[in-house]
Amino acid sequence: MNRFIQGLHALFSATVQDHKTWLSHMIYFQESLGWKLFLAIITLVPLMFLAHYLFIGPRRFSHQKGLVFFFSVITRFIHWIAAISFTFLVITGLMVIFARSLGGGGLVLQARHWHLVSAIVFSLSALPMFLIWVKDMFPAPYDIEWLFMMGGYLSKETRPIPAGKFNAGQKMWFWLATLGGGVMAWTGWYIYSLGAPTHSLRLFVLIHGYLAAVLTGFFIIHLYMSLFAIKGSLRSMITGYKPKEEVEILHSRFKV
Amino acid sequence: MARMKFLCDIERCIACDGCVIACKEGNNVPVGINRRRVVTINEGQPGEKSISISCMHCSDAPCIAVCPVDAIYQREDGIVLVNKDTCIGCGYCFMACPFGAPQFPSGKVFGARGAMDKCTFCAGGPAETFSQKERKLYGQNRIAEGKPPLCAAMCATKALLAGDADIVADIYRERVFRRGSGVNAWGWSRAYGKK
To answer: Residue A101, Cβ neighbours under 10 Å: how many?
Structure first.
């Protein structure tokens, strides 16, 4: 019993010592940095893409050369479960970030509940998604080349881009969404349940916040690429087929 | 305007838990929620000390700083209150508080946390003073009635002092001078110190 009290006392004093570091950062994040960071991401990233759309323009590929089977039924099904739950996660998460402007109360409380529900659905779909795609997602030498030329998206010229079944950008998004999603689920669970020492919880709030900012950015990139930048990209995730011409250009190292 | 503060004289606290029970009964605090609690250190050993802890109504309160919905606010007299209609139960105030004051009842959906509950200094809440809603959500409004908080009023040894900071500090200073021990009031530098 005596040892137990000593242990508690040691834990308490350690908490008090760590208190300053994470707490001051958490206050900074909660008071101003957090919402400013997210506001910057959800305005500047779309603006950047608007400029891209207007000045460089989307890519179009003809279906003349035929189609290539790219995504199986199961892949598409799991992708859409992940996509819908992730969209909910982003929206409800942003609602909590901008809760001040929304006035708090019932609406944000609902958002917080739905954040949990979508997190569970996403976690369940992220695991099979990881297993299905992981073999195509390991870094390859030509990914560096892809990164240096920004995937060729900065020029109007159509020439073969160095990428396998997935390009370096898609690979980054994959690892962020699955492993990063795992970190989000892990930290999120502790934030939700308050099931860790106080100083760890503060650190988890910060990790959850910063990683969420990165994920939100990549989410917007993914939306732009699939909905606007490459015409017909959305259709490939519905039907499973990509135009052969698109695969030859954007995934030139992919052996059909 | 007077600045309200709590002071627990740890040389006097005998861990009778009268403050805890007065608070719970007088404010109809639900089971599992402790707006005030007594912590005993070195129990049964020489140098045993007990402290009665609740929300200290800090200056520059960290809970107010981290609240994502601005549900927590500070009155002019320093009393920190929460608006339960705005609170989303995220628990950030609990992570920021150095005194473990914020408490969370389990809510209706998936056992998720309900709105935060904590010591109100017996000053009710943002709902209309003496209204049914205020009584139900926040408890008594003894400050509006001109009475001290239940815990301090109940305290048998007058270890727990509550009220105008200057008067509280004067009483404590005089005690310290007379008995010659216990210079720093527990928690005061953390709660009311300059950052």
So the answer is: 10
